[in-house]
TrEMBL record:
<dbReference type="InterPro" id="IPR032818">
    <property type="entry name" value="DedA-like"/>
</dbReference>
<feature type="transmembrane region" description="Helical">
    <location>
        <begin position="52"/>
        <end position="74"/>
    </location>
</feature>
<comment type="similarity">
    <text>Belongs to the DedA family.</text>
</comment>
<feature type="transmembrane region" description="Helical">
    <location>
        <begin position="94"/>
        <end position="113"/>
    </location>
</feature>
<feature type="transmembrane region" description="Helical">
    <location>
        <begin position="12"/>
        <end position="32"/>
    </location>
</feature>
<feature type="domain" description="VTT">
    <location>
        <begin position="32"/>
        <end position="155"/>
    </location>
</feature>
<keyword id="KW-1003">Cell membrane</keyword>
<keyword id="KW-0472">Membrane</keyword>
<dbReference type="GO" id="GO:0005886">
    <property type="term" value="C:plasma membrane"/>
</dbReference>
<feature type="transmembrane region" description="Helical">
    <location>
        <begin position="134"/>
        <end position="157"/>
    </location>
</feature>
<keyword id="KW-0812">Transmembrane</keyword>
<protein>
    <submittedName>
        <fullName>DedA protein</fullName>
    </submittedName>
</protein>
<dbReference type="InterPro" id="IPR032816">
    <property type="entry name" value="VTT_dom"/>
</dbReference>
<keyword id="KW-1133">Transmembrane helix</keyword>
<feature type="transmembrane region" description="Helical">
    <location>
        <begin position="169"/>
        <end position="190"/>
    </location>
</feature>
<dbReference type="Pfam" id="PF09335">
    <property type="entry name" value="VTT_dom"/>
</dbReference>
Length: 199
Protein backbone atom coordinates (compact mmCIF):
# COMPACT_ATOMS: atom_id res chain seq x y z
CA UNK A 1 0.00 0.00 0.00
CA UNK A 2 2.93 2.33 0.64
CA UNK A 3 3.85 1.92 -3.03
CA UNK A 4 0.33 3.04 -4.02
CA UNK A 5 0.68 6.12 -1.79
CA UNK A 6 4.09 6.86 -3.31
CA UNK A 7 2.60 6.60 -6.80
CA UNK A 8 -0.27 8.92 -5.90
CA UNK A 9 2.03 11.53 -4.39
CA UNK A 10 4.57 11.40 -7.20
CA UNK A 11 2.10 11.29 -10.10
CA UNK A 12 -0.38 13.58 -8.35
CA UNK A 13 -3.66 14.52 -10.06
CA UNK A 14 -2.59 13.60 -13.59
CA UNK A 15 -1.59 10.14 -12.41
CA UNK A 16 -4.92 9.69 -10.63
CA UNK A 17 -6.71 10.72 -13.81
CA UNK A 18 -4.86 8.22 -16.02
CA UNK A 19 -5.22 5.33 -13.56
CA UNK A 20 -8.97 5.92 -13.24
CA UNK A 21 -9.33 6.36 -17.01
CA UNK A 22 -7.58 3.06 -17.74
CA UNK A 23 -9.34 1.14 -14.95
CA UNK A 24 -12.83 2.29 -15.94
CA UNK A 25 -12.52 2.34 -19.72
CA UNK A 26 -9.89 -0.05 -21.03
CA UNK A 27 -10.43 -3.79 -20.67
CA UNK A 28 -6.75 -4.29 -19.86
CA UNK A 29 -7.10 -1.95 -16.89
CA UNK A 30 -9.23 -4.23 -14.72
CA UNK A 31 -6.24 -5.00 -12.47
CA UNK A 32 -5.57 -1.35 -11.62
CA UNK A 33 -6.54 0.04 -8.19
CA UNK A 34 -9.89 1.80 -8.33
CA UNK A 35 -11.57 1.97 -4.94
CA UNK A 36 -8.26 1.69 -3.12
CA UNK A 37 -6.91 4.63 -5.15
CA UNK A 38 -9.88 6.83 -4.20
CA UNK A 39 -9.69 5.84 -0.53
CA UNK A 40 -5.95 6.45 -0.33
CA UNK A 41 -6.23 9.77 -2.20
CA UNK A 42 -9.06 10.92 0.06
CA UNK A 43 -7.07 10.10 3.19
CA UNK A 44 -4.01 11.86 1.77
CA UNK A 45 -6.18 14.90 1.10
CA UNK A 46 -7.41 14.77 4.69
CA UNK A 47 -3.76 14.83 5.78
CA UNK A 48 -3.12 17.92 3.70
CA UNK A 49 -0.89 16.15 1.15
CA UNK A 50 -3.36 16.56 -1.73
CA UNK A 51 -6.16 18.98 -2.53
CA UNK A 52 -9.60 17.35 -2.16
CA UNK A 53 -11.17 19.29 -5.04
CA UNK A 54 -8.24 18.37 -7.28
CA UNK A 55 -8.57 14.68 -6.43
CA UNK A 56 -12.32 14.71 -7.06
CA UNK A 57 -11.92 16.51 -10.39
CA UNK A 58 -9.24 14.05 -11.55
CA UNK A 59 -11.37 11.05 -10.56
CA UNK A 60 -14.67 12.28 -12.00
CA UNK A 61 -13.19 13.41 -15.33
CA UNK A 62 -11.10 10.24 -15.63
CA UNK A 63 -14.10 8.04 -14.80
CA UNK A 64 -16.39 9.82 -17.25
CA UNK A 65 -13.91 9.81 -20.14
CA UNK A 66 -12.83 6.24 -19.35
CA UNK A 67 -16.39 4.93 -19.52
CA UNK A 68 -16.99 6.91 -22.70
CA UNK A 69 -13.90 5.34 -24.29
CA UNK A 70 -15.04 1.88 -23.15
CA UNK A 71 -18.45 2.44 -24.74
CA UNK A 72 -16.94 3.36 -28.12
CA UNK A 73 -14.50 0.45 -27.96
CA UNK A 74 -17.44 -1.91 -27.50
CA UNK A 75 -19.45 -0.20 -30.21
CA UNK A 76 -16.56 -0.28 -32.71
CA UNK A 77 -15.05 -3.71 -32.11
CA UNK A 78 -17.88 -5.58 -30.40
CA UNK A 79 -19.69 -6.84 -33.51
CA UNK A 80 -16.52 -8.42 -34.89
CA UNK A 81 -15.55 -9.97 -31.56
CA UNK A 82 -19.02 -11.45 -30.95
CA UNK A 83 -19.63 -12.70 -34.49
CA UNK A 84 -17.82 -16.02 -34.09
CA UNK A 85 -20.34 -18.82 -33.53
CA UNK A 86 -17.60 -21.15 -32.28
CA UNK A 87 -16.19 -18.75 -29.69
CA UNK A 88 -16.45 -19.95 -26.10
CA UNK A 89 -16.36 -16.55 -24.43
CA UNK A 90 -17.77 -14.15 -27.09
CA UNK A 91 -20.88 -15.84 -28.44
CA UNK A 92 -23.30 -13.80 -30.64
CA UNK A 93 -26.23 -14.51 -28.31
CA UNK A 94 -24.39 -12.63 -25.57
CA UNK A 95 -25.04 -9.42 -27.51
CA UNK A 96 -28.81 -9.89 -27.46
CA UNK A 97 -28.64 -10.85 -23.79
CA UNK A 98 -26.67 -7.68 -23.07
CA UNK A 99 -29.22 -5.60 -24.99
CA UNK A 100 -32.07 -7.07 -22.94
CA UNK A 101 -30.11 -6.50 -19.75
CA UNK A 102 -29.42 -2.83 -20.48
CA UNK A 103 -33.00 -2.16 -21.55
CA UNK A 104 -34.19 -3.57 -18.23
CA UNK A 105 -31.44 -2.38 -15.88
CA UNK A 106 -29.73 0.39 -17.88
CA UNK A 107 -29.44 3.03 -15.17
CA UNK A 108 -28.62 0.65 -12.34
CA UNK A 109 -26.12 -1.31 -14.44
CA UNK A 110 -24.09 1.73 -15.48
CA UNK A 111 -24.33 3.62 -12.18
CA UNK A 112 -23.88 0.79 -9.67
CA UNK A 113 -21.15 -0.89 -11.73
CA UNK A 114 -18.91 1.97 -10.62
CA UNK A 115 -18.76 0.46 -7.16
CA UNK A 116 -17.86 -3.11 -8.18
CA UNK A 117 -14.26 -3.94 -9.23
CA UNK A 118 -13.84 -5.58 -12.65
CA UNK A 119 -17.54 -5.04 -13.40
CA UNK A 120 -16.97 -1.30 -13.80
CA UNK A 121 -14.33 -2.12 -16.41
CA UNK A 122 -16.61 -4.45 -18.39
CA UNK A 123 -19.95 -2.60 -18.32
CA UNK A 124 -18.96 0.33 -20.59
CA UNK A 125 -17.76 -2.04 -23.32
CA UNK A 126 -20.87 -4.21 -23.02
CA UNK A 127 -23.05 -1.09 -23.20
CA UNK A 128 -21.33 -0.17 -26.47
CA UNK A 129 -21.62 -3.70 -27.83
CA UNK A 130 -25.34 -3.78 -27.07
CA UNK A 131 -25.84 -0.36 -28.72
CA UNK A 132 -27.32 1.25 -25.62
CA UNK A 133 -28.46 4.78 -26.67
CA UNK A 134 -25.41 7.00 -26.22
CA UNK A 135 -27.20 10.03 -24.76
CA UNK A 136 -28.91 7.85 -22.17
CA UNK A 137 -25.64 6.09 -21.43
CA UNK A 138 -23.89 9.46 -21.04
CA UNK A 139 -26.46 10.60 -18.48
CA UNK A 140 -25.93 7.44 -16.40
CA UNK A 141 -22.19 7.74 -16.92
CA UNK A 142 -22.13 11.27 -15.47
CA UNK A 143 -24.27 10.29 -12.48
CA UNK A 144 -22.13 7.24 -11.76
CA UNK A 145 -18.87 9.17 -12.11
CA UNK A 146 -20.09 11.83 -9.66
CA UNK A 147 -21.45 9.36 -7.10
CA UNK A 148 -18.31 7.23 -7.18
CA UNK A 149 -15.66 9.92 -7.66
CA UNK A 150 -17.09 12.47 -5.25
CA UNK A 151 -18.87 10.14 -2.84
CA UNK A 152 -16.12 7.62 -2.09
CA UNK A 153 -13.37 10.25 -2.04
CA UNK A 154 -15.39 12.57 0.22
CA UNK A 155 -16.22 9.68 2.57
CA UNK A 156 -12.57 8.71 3.01
CA UNK A 157 -11.64 12.41 3.40
CA UNK A 158 -14.31 12.88 6.07
CA UNK A 159 -13.19 9.78 7.98
CA UNK A 160 -9.59 10.95 7.72
CA UNK A 161 -10.59 14.29 9.25
CA UNK A 162 -12.73 12.63 11.91
CA UNK A 163 -10.28 9.95 13.04
CA UNK A 164 -6.67 11.00 13.77
CA UNK A 165 -3.90 8.99 12.08
CA UNK A 166 -6.42 6.99 10.05
CA UNK A 167 -3.96 7.00 7.14
CA UNK A 168 -1.90 4.47 9.12
CA UNK A 169 -4.71 1.95 8.57
CA UNK A 170 -5.15 2.46 4.82
CA UNK A 171 -4.19 -1.15 4.09
CA UNK A 172 -6.85 -2.54 6.43
CA UNK A 173 -9.55 -0.17 5.15
CA UNK A 174 -8.81 -0.97 1.51
CA UNK A 175 -8.81 -4.71 2.24
CA UNK A 176 -12.26 -4.49 3.85
CA UNK A 177 -13.64 -2.43 0.95
CA UNK A 178 -12.24 -4.86 -1.61
CA UNK A 179 -13.73 -7.88 0.16
CA UNK A 180 -17.15 -6.24 0.46
CA UNK A 181 -17.18 -5.07 -3.15
CA UNK A 182 -16.12 -8.46 -4.53
CA UNK A 183 -18.76 -10.42 -2.57
CA UNK A 184 -21.54 -9.79 -5.18
CA UNK A 185 -19.28 -11.08 -7.98
CA UNK A 186 -18.43 -14.24 -6.04
CA UNK A 187 -22.09 -14.88 -5.21
CA UNK A 188 -23.15 -14.46 -8.85
CA UNK A 189 -20.35 -16.78 -9.96
CA UNK A 190 -21.37 -19.44 -7.47
CA UNK A 191 -25.03 -19.13 -8.52
CA UNK A 192 -24.07 -19.49 -12.18
CA UNK A 193 -21.99 -22.60 -11.42
CA UNK A 194 -24.80 -24.09 -9.40
CA UNK A 195 -27.26 -23.60 -12.26
CA UNK A 196 -24.75 -25.04 -14.73
CA UNK A 197 -24.31 -28.33 -12.82
CA UNK A 198 -28.03 -28.90 -12.42
CA UNK A 199 -29.31 -31.71 -14.72
Amino acid sequence: MSSLIDVILSASYLGIFFIVFAETGLLVGFFLPGDSLLIAAGLLAAGGKLNLAGVMAAVVVGAFLGNTAGYFIGQRFGPAVFSNQNSRFFKPEYVSQAQTFFVKYGALAVILARFVPIVRTLVPTLAGVSRMPFLLYTLYNIIGALLWGVGLTALSYYLGQLIPDLDKYILLIVAVVLVVSVIPIVLKFLQARKRAVKP
